[in-house]
Amino acid sequence: MPIHFSEADQAAYFYYTDDSGRNHVVWFEDTRSLFAKVQIVADRRLGGIGTWQINFAMPQYPWVFTHLLQIRKV
């Protein structure tokens, strides 16, 4: 099943059909969509960002933050 990326929404998605024949679209975070969101934080010099990730399934996750932001643990 191919993964698509919406430039307008800056988000990844894919389509699938379930066992009952119903069509679905699933939107999810990937490196590109995460980078776009963190870039907004950096560009607008926002005071901070909160995030979490289950099982660190995206190995690029820490890189996106350390590349664009100065990390300060409090």
From TrEMBL:
InterPro entries: Chitinase_insertion_sf, GH, GH18_Domain-Containing, Glyco_hydro18_cat
Name of one Pfam family that matches: Glyco_hydro_18
Protein origin, superkingdom: Bacteria
Keyword Cytoplasm listed: no
Assigned keywords, A-Z: Glycosidase, Hydrolase
Keyword NAD: no
GO MF entries: hydrolase activity, acting on glycosyl bonds
Domain GH18 stretches: 1-74
Gene3D superfamilies hit by this protein: 3.10.50.10, Glycosidases (3.20.20.80)
GO annotation, biological process: oligosaccharide catabolic process
Protein name, as recorded: GH18 domain-containing protein
Provenance organism: Sporolactobacillus sp. Y61
